Fold this sequence. Notes:
It is built from 3 helices and 6 strands. It has 167 residues and is an alpha/beta fold.
Amino acid sequence: MSKLVIILCLFLVSCAGYQLGGSKPSNLSHVKSIHIPLFQNDTLFVRAETQATNSVVDALNRDGTYQIASSESADAILKGRITDLDYGQVSSIRTDSLRSEELSLTIHIDWSLVDASNPSRILVKGRSTGRTTFFARGNLNIARTNALPDALQRACESLSSRLADGF
């Protein structure tokens, strides 16, 4: 019986430093729900703003720290803008260094979380970046289009982490 009590005490003490929930930054402690309007798109990539908005909603839903709400019932509004899509060469074909074999796609999203009751008050703002690589074989336009959701997902997970954890 005493061994059982000792094991139970050790088990309870080993988890003493952990807590569930409540890990959001102190300046966002009053924010429970966020409204996310359609992001703006400063690039020439068609429908990137829709994919970015959906990726942010998915990332915040997966995290669970905040609820997604309508503009009337939200505590804060998340405004976003896709500012840049950068392509770079990761590797080239051995016989021709100017011909790309693998490319990288880097996407930059500038965002700000504003108070819903006073939109001129910025609670937090930042820039999130997502990067992915893809092969440049076949149709390059299709390869770029297929790479965009992965880069957006990485940028939006970074954004979600910043809102939920502060880093």
